[in-house]
Amino acid sequence: MTSIKIILILIAGLTAIIASIALPRLAYRLVAILLFLSAAILIISPDTANTIAHILGVGRGADLLLYLSVFAGIHAFLLIFARTRRIERKLVEHVRVVAISRAVRLS
């Protein structure tokens, strides 16, 4: 095994540990660990990506990984966007409650 593979596996393992600590729900933790385990397998055996790509009808394993990365990036963006919208709504609601409670009658 080459040194770059060892470094990449260590990075994948460290990222899996950080993700399992940082993610709030068990399902997210399991998905993160599964993702990084599959990354480690693909690092150890890159021909596996080609085999899976050919089974799915994609020309190369690198192309398959690129497609999956694009979809994962879009999914992550949408999750962050939805969370930001929820936080904005809660903040507006809180500001309205505070503004109404501190309002002074002008009569």
Question: Layout of SSEs?
Answer:
Elements: H1 3-22, H2 26-44, H3 47-56, H4 61-101
Helix pairs in contact: 1-2, 3-4
Keywords:
107 residues, 0% strand, elongated, mainly alpha
What features would you describe in this structure?
By secondary structure, the protein is mainly α. It has one domain. The protein is 84% helix and 0% strand. The chain contains four helices and no strands. Helix 1 runs antiparallel to helix 2. The longest helix is centred in the C-terminal third of the chain and has 41 residues. The chain is elongated and about 75 Å long. The model has no long low-confidence stretch (mean pLDDT 88).
Series of H and E elements = HHHH
How many angstroms separate the termini?
Answer: 81 Å
Mean pLDDT across the residues is 88
Low-confidence stretches: none
* Largest sheet entry: none
Short account of what is shown:
It is built from 4 helices and no strands. It is an all-alpha fold and 107 residues long.
